[in-house]
Amino acid sequence: MWPELLVCGLVIYKVIKRFFYDDDILDVETSDSNAMFLVGSRLEKLYGGKVYLGLRIPDPDTGTRQNIDMVIVNKREAVVINVKNFSGFIQVDSDGSWICTRGNAHKTERHPDPVEETKKQVAILESYLEQRGVALPDGYISGKVVLPNPKSSSVYPFPPEVISFDQWTKLKPEPKSMLSGWINNPFRGGKKDMQESIHQQLEFILFTAPMWDRLELKENKNLLGEFLDFKGKSEDIQTLRNIKRSKVSRLIIQKTSMLGLARSTLTVLYCARDIRNEGTSSSDWKEISVRSSTEVLFQPQNSSKVRKFKLSSITSMSLSA
Questions:
Q1: Long-range own/partner contacts, residues 64-69 (CB < 8 A, 24 or more apart)
Q2: Taking the CA of residue 151 as centre, how many other CA atoms within 13 Å lie in the half-sphere pointing to its CB?
Q3: The predicted structure's pLDDT at residue 197
Q4: Do the beta carbons of residue 271 and residue 250 sit within 8 Å?
Q5: CA distance 80 to 199
Q6: Residues in Cβ contact with 3 at an 8 Å cutoff, skipping those fewer than 6 apart
Q7: pLDDT tens profile 175-213
Q8: Is the pLDDT of residue 168 over 80?
Q9: Which domains does the chain have, with CATH numbers?
Q10: How far is it, in rounded angstroms, from Cα 133 to Cα 201?
């Protein structure tokens, strides 16, 4: 009798879990994407300026796009931030690669040298900005590697480009008496303010640069990747047929009612995709209503798996041009 009761209890548990929880949300709880958003949010709060997340900058040498976690810009400088959500004890091998060892089983992972990786990203970004008409003085764009995971450690000294978790937790904002710039810590550049016109042009180019699509999920979880399509009832799919990246910039999903047929109200921002026009005069917000069970097909960054998210688990979705 007990085996039957255990099996029955397991089935009920799985049904309840499937009804109340989205497994995809649970999977991304400690994802690299979420770590990036947390780092970007803290940098903006600490230093001001503007953070541009999830960039995909064209690399003319390879004909592909280089992923850049984020660039933070203020009037003094721009810094490429490479977020490494590594967990475990970190060692640097003779070839420059990083070896992370974690767990009692001493499971190891080998990663390419993130410092060299970041230097390459800085060079590609400088080339891209120059192609779009912004030639910054040498040294105005620098790069940093941030280790935000509290489970990361090392007894070896990191190069100055790396911000360890211990350094990351001790960062403090610059006194308000300072006009602009970074605090007196590893981010501090000591550079003069760039011209206002160049600063504005730099921000606009980064704002219109290729980037990953992004999902904001419930419980303050975020995910970068590529939106593929919607899946659901035919009438709902027909209602959503005009939501394409060529027309839509952002969707905001409002709260749903569980009385009767649960539905989600999507506030959709339709806008002209013209990077020459910085204004928003051509934007238009519209509301549409579909079933909350309608799913978003989304492929996360650095993953071959396509995930499905119910609209009821999504707060907003932003689509890159």
A1: 65/210, 66/120, 66/121, 66/124, 67/212, 67/301, 68/121, 68/124, 68/125, 69/36, 69/39
A2: 10
A3: 82
A4: no
A5: 16
A6: none
A7: 543 333 444 455 555 566 667 888 889 999 999 899 999
A8: yes
A9: 32-207 (3.40.1350), 213-318 (no CATH)
A10: 9
The two structure tokens encoding residue 99: 């070896």
pLDDT digits (tens, 9 = 90+) for 279-316: 444 578 889 999 999 999 999 988 888 999 999 899 99
CB count in 10 Å sphere of residue 21? 11
d(CA 275, CA 282): 12
How many whole angstroms separate alpha carbon 298 and alpha carbon 301? Answer: 10
- 0.70 cut: is pTM over it? yes
Residues 6 or more apart whose Cβ sits within 8 Å of residue 216: 222, 314, 315, 316, 317
Confirm if 71 and 79 have CB atoms less than 8 A apart: yes
Q: Whole-angstrom Cα distance, residue 223 to residue 35?
A: 10
